[in-house]
């Protein structure tokens, strides 16, 4: 019997023709959003992705990263980071309660699936590196490769903190969002384990308003139907 979500050839099959409409050398975030809308997949780039892209860019700037191409790839990678989940059955993504080991393995394929999907396009290759490594941890306990330290691309190390910040401070189907102070404490506690110490130091060294101002202290309602 065919296993769900396993055939990478099928991943993104519905969206591939739409990607071909993109210019070959450049793509704007708006182009990507339009494509997902046309494919009926606007859920793939949701409020979480937009918030993480904002935080990741701010974090890179706090680390004095100036390179335009790096910032563009980071932002685009953040917008698209979970696009590989289009290969994961909805019943798994929206399942209330813990996943079985088999279901967890399927979910954990989404970084590679997303990489395969977008690295086909030259102008998205930098972003694809963020997508591929966005679940790695600084201590090597992440996935899909268990890379550690500087073996993980800097863009993915920056992304990891931005993602965690937004995940902790926004509402989820199973819990209310935590305060910024709580998230700040958790990130400091995970310095050198989950997160790159240099990225954590840049985060802690920037004024809190950098991370909270885009929403004026009131988080927008999240429409994502994903639990996992
Ligand atoms: Fe992910």
Describe the structure.
This protein has 228 residues and is mostly helical. The protein has a single domain, classed as Hypothetical protein af1432 (Orthogonal Bundle). It contains 12 helices and no strands. The radius of gyration is 17 Å and the shape is globular. The site of fe (ii) ion has 5 residues, from loops.
List the keywords.
binds fe (ii) ion; disordered N terminus; single chain; 49% helix; 228 residues; Hypothetical protein af1432; 12 helices; mainly alpha
What fold name stands as the CATH topology? Answer: Hypothetical protein af1432
Radius of gyration: 17 Å
Instruction: Identify low-pLDDT runs.
Output: 1-16, 22-26, 215-223
Judged by helices, strands and strand pairing, the structural class is mainly alpha
Catalogue the ligands. fe (ii) ion
Estimate nothing, just give the exact number of structural domains: 1
Q: Give the percentage of residues in beta strands.
A: under 5%
Portion in helices? 40-55%
Q: Class in CATH?
A: Mainly Alpha
Quantity of strands, as a count: 0
CATH superfamily: Hypothetical protein af1432
Q: What's the shape?
A: globular
Mean pLDDT: 80
Name given to the CATH architecture: Orthogonal Bundle
Query: In this structure, how is the largest beta sheet organized?
Result: none
Number of continuous helical runs: 12
Q: What separation lies between the terminal Cα atoms?
A: 25 Å
Encode the helix/strand succession as letters.
HHHHHHHHHHHH
